[in-house]
Amino acid sequence: DYVCRFFAPSEGIDEDAATGSIQCTLVPYWAGRTGKQTFRVQQLSSRGARMWCTLVGDRVKIAGEVKLYLQGTINI
């Protein structure tokens, strides 16, 4: 339904490959403009990402496909 890219060079992020947090702003924005509640989102980074986002009340539910690339234990 829409595409996006996210850059934050001042934070050391040249381009984020899959930015779920920005959907918490974009989904309510597009819902207000279109009347839709569910969106297919394509992030156009070099790695690329597809997300399915749904506005539920004042929350945004985000789903997508992932691949395990790291596994470990953190002791605090």
The CATH topology is given as Diaminopimelate Epimerase, Chain A, domain 1
Tell me which CATH architecture applies here. Answer: Roll
| Largest pleated sheet | 4 strands, mixed
CATH superfamily: Diaminopimelate Epimerase, Chain A, domain 1
Strands of the widest sheet, in order across it, are 1-4-5-6
Helix content: 10-25%
Briefly, what is this?
This protein is of the alpha+beta class and 76 residues long. The chain has a single domain, classed as Diaminopimelate Epimerase, Chain A, domain 1. It contains one helix and six strands.
Task: Explain how this protein is built.
The chain has one helix spanning 20-34; strands at residues 2-4, 6-8, 13-16, 38-43, 49-56, 59-64. Strands 1-4-5-6 form a 4-stranded mixed β-sheet. Helices cover 20% and strands 39% of the residues. The protein has one domain (2-64): Diaminopimelate Epimerase, Chain A, domain 1, CATH 3.10.310. Strand 4 (38-43) and strand 5 (49-56) form a beta hairpin. The protein is built from 1 helix and 6 strands. The N and C termini lie far apart (42 Å). The longest helix has 15 residues, at 20-34.
